Amino acid sequence: MPKSGPFKVFLADDHPLLRTGLRMGLSQFSDIDFIGEANDGFKAVERIKQNPPDAALIDVDMPGLSGVAAVRMLRKHYPEMTLLILSSYSDKHFIEEAMQAGADGYVLKSIDITDLVELIRAFVNKEHPMSPYLMDLAVDWEDTRPDMEPDEEDDPEDFLTRREKQILDCLARGQGNKEISNSLFISPETVKTHIKNIFKKLDVKSRLEAVIAAKERKLIN
């Protein structure tokens, strides 16, 4: 069941004015519970561990420990926590670093506060939000990263990507490539590539076999 709130939110940014502005903006929403802030990566990791939020907004470039490094550390301990990188940069290099570290999204600081809150709600509920301030490369990172080659002893839960699990859910609902493409905002060709990789990783030859194998291994409900 989707979470309706309150959504606990933490903010890490080294600019006091930005923190103040976001804190005041987020406080306008009754379903947002602003639980803390930090001005560098080390403090952010420490305070988040003390009181884990539903979502953490983390500046990409902070003194001491960068936002990307902080996300990497947090992701190891909190696989389900929503970690969003805030940035003024739209360079591909920054975006790819953030996604490789485990960020759920890469959001431009020019975003309107209402749009930011909508993104927080959507990400916490594992939906697939679209916003002109949410960089496309961030949404599609799992479509372009290299496939992991599993060892024979590996559990599929460990080597299936998040996107592949999403596509397995779609296959279980009987969706075709076009429907999957529309619901996940990726191209039909990308869907085909993911399905091919799923077949290889699960050692199956059809969509039905993939769904059965995934259910047997409790990869999907």
TrEMBL record:
The keyword Cell inner membrane does not apply. The modification 4-aspartylphosphate is found at D59. Residues 8-124 form the Response regulatory domain. One of its GO terms (biological process) is regulation of DNA-templated transcription. InterPro entries: CheY-like_superfamily, NreC/VraR/RcsB-like_REC, Sig_transdc_resp-reg_C-effctor, Sig_transdc_resp-reg_receiver, Tscrpt_reg_LuxR_C, WalR-like. Keywords: DNA-binding, Phosphoprotein. Gene3D superfamilies: 3.40.50.2300. PANTHER family: TWO-COMPONENT RESPONSE REGULATOR (PTHR43214:SF43). This is DNA-binding response regulator. It comes from Syntrophotalea acetylenica (Pelobacter acetylenicus). The lineage of its organism: Bacteria, Pseudomonadati, Thermodesulfobacteriota, Desulfuromonadia, Desulfuromonadales.
